[in-house]
Design goal:
The complex is a heterodimer.
Chain A (H helix, E strand, L loop, with lengths): L11 H4 L4 H19 L4 E6 L6 H14 L4 E5 L7 H5 L7 H7 L8 E2 L5 E4 L8 H5 L2 H11 L4 E5 L8 H6 L4 E7 L5 H13 L4 E7 L10 H6 L7
Parallel strand pairs in A: 1-5, 1-6, 2-4, 2-5, 6-7
Antiparallel strand pairs in A: 3-4
Chain B lengths: L6 E6 L12 H13 L2 E9 L5 H17 L5 E9 L4 H6 L11 E5 L9 H9 L4 E5 L5 H5 L1 H9 L3 E5 L9 H13 L2 E5 L16 H8 L1 H16 L22
Parallel strand pairs in B: 1-2, 2-3, 3-4, 4-5, 5-6, 6-7
Helix pairs in contact in B: 1-2, 8-9
The chains are: A alpha/beta, B alpha/beta.
């Protein structure tokens, strides 16, 4: 349990597994599993139009939900603009993706164990002055290919689409893109622009996650009834 | 708001007999007492890698530790280099000629005052690939950063952490240095303040006397972050979360956008 102390409380898949938010991440996992029946999903990119939409949190919780479901999962922080997975999981980030791409060597040395047995995390590593060049390099493609052998599924956290080319570069090197929209935050124009950019490179958009939707009353959720103990039980 | 002890002073030139530091162990002890009276409990004794090789820093550090122990001072003293920026900084670190700050994994880098060389970003990135985190020592003195906010933004994006000198935040300092230090705090590059104590009278081992100025400009939470929280995180070897957009000078809330 001591490990949990360093985890962000917002990682609800592990910190509040019975919450309705955690249930939603498990639903997302199920949806991915259905989508992967026809065409297997090994690498999934999580992105959004603009920063602060919750894509890093979505990627982290999704990776936790996948690991809870028994799949060997790898979470890769490919957001070289503002990486945050090391903050969420309390990891040092002295080495990581950029070290693997720039320095090479055995990939295992850049993977940190996650809080669940089935989850490993590759943090961003030091941030380079030229993130797009690193992400678009052949060395990056080689690293992604090698990582496929390390897990059943890889979840990549990426920078936002509008303003940076990084996510667009990464999107067609993956099996699909999960697009995150933060309710009442994103502008429709930015979302349309981002989706257009992803379509231009023929990225496979798997679906949209609507994030941070305010619910009027937590007690109205079905989860409440499922979790409630019958009267008289200890 | 006066920051509460224990404080961490990330940059004090108090290694006896080295570069522009303190000439003798007795004078160094005076600075250590001054720091302790100010609430400092962890002090990073720093010297330039260009003039003080690793062995000399280690010897001077041992002397300083002995002096502090004999005086009964409750002060943890760690040592480190401040490395002058060079294209092959990473190689120098790999070869062991640059000492990090204690066991923190952070390395102090000093930019040349009048230039921001074109290789700077690559050299800092190469150094961080060695498994270190980069601290820019008194970046407020660099002319390139004073004149080019895009470079400041780039360094923030690379999570390079600037440490300003308290000396440049005092009334007697040059107006350019003070204005630059305040701008870099606002921009989010400077995340911590250290005393930059040295041999001269205008470089005391004090931190708390700049709290009032920082509080006036940025508010109490920034004072806590700059003087307490971030220096503690650095000395413990923890990553510093960069939040460039959240720090805004109080005055700007009352001025037109």
């Amino acid at each position: 349990m001591s490990e949990l102390k360093t985890l962000e409380a917002r990682l609800v898949s592990i910190t509040q597994p019975r919450s309705s938010a955690a249930e939603q991440y498990r639903s997302l996992r199920t949806s991915l599993e259905f989508l992967g029946v026809a065409r297997p999903l090994h690498k999934v990119l999580v992105t959004s139009a603009v920063p602060e939409s919750g894509k890093s949190l979505t990627a982290a919780n999704l990776a936790l939900a996948l690991a809870q479901g028994g799949r060997a999962t790898l979470l890769v922080d490919a957001d070289l603009r503002r990486p945050s997975q090391h903050h969420l999981f309390g990891l040092p980030n002295l080495t990581g993706l950029t070290s693997a791409v720039t320095r090479g060597g055995e990939l295992g040395q850049y993977l940190a164990p996650g809080p669940l047995a089935g989850l490993r995390i590759m943090t961003s590593g030091p941030i380079p002055p030229n993130p797009s060049e690193i992400l678009g390099s052949t060395a990056m493609r080689d690293v992604l290919e090698q990582l496929e052998a390390e897990a059943d599924i890889i979840v990549l956290d990426s920078p936002p689409v509008v303003g940076f080319t990084d996510a667009v570069i990464l999107s067609n090197r993956n099996d699909g893109v999960i697009y995150v929209v933060r309710a009442g935050f994103n502008s429709r124009k930015a979302d349309l622009k981002a989706l257009e950019l992803l379509r231009q490179v023929e990225a496979r958009i798997l679906g949209v996650v609507l994030n941070d939707l305010k619910q009027p009353d937590e007690s109205l959720n079905y989860a409440y009834y499922y979790n409630r103990r019958p009267a008289g039980t200890p | 708001m006066k920051p509460k002890a224990p404080l961490v002073d990330l940059n004090a030139h108090v290694l006896p007999g080295l570069d522009d530091g303190i000439p003798s162990p007795e004078a160094a002890l005076k600075r250590l007492h001054e720091a302790h009276a100010d609430g400092v409990r962890v002090l990073c004794a720093v010297s330039s890698s260009a003039v003080s090789p690793k062995a000399r820093v280690t010897t001077a550090h041992e002397r300083l530790l002995r002096v502090a122990r004999e005086a009964g001072l409750e002060l943890q003293i760690v040592s480190g280099h401040q490395a002058a920026l060079r294209p092959d900084l990473a190689r120098e670190f790999r070869e062991g000629s640059i000492l990090p700050l204690g066991n923190s994994g952070y390395v102090f880098v000093e930019l040349p005052p009048d230039d921001f060389p074109s290789y700077t970003l690559d050299a800092l990135y190469d150094l961080s690939l060695e498994g270190t985190r980069v601290l820019l020592i008194h970046p407020e003195l660099n002319y390139g950063l004073q004149k080019n906010p895009a470079l400041v933004k780039k360094l923030c994006e690379m999570e390079v952490v600037g440490v300003a000198a308290a000396r440049h935040l005092r009334r007697k300092s040059s107006r350019v240095a003070m204005s630059s230090a305040l701008s870099l705090i606002e921009a989010g590059l400077v995340q911590a303040v250290a005393s930059y104590a040295g041999r001269t009278q205008d470089r005391p081992a004090r931190l708390t006397d700049v709290a009032a100025l920082l509080g006036r400009h940025f508010g109490d939470s920034a004072v806590e972050s700059l003087l307490t929280k971030t220096p503690h995180a650095i000395s413990a070897g923890l990553p510093v979360e960069m939040r460039p957009a959240s720090r805004r000078p109080l005055a700007s809330w009352f001025s037109p956008a």
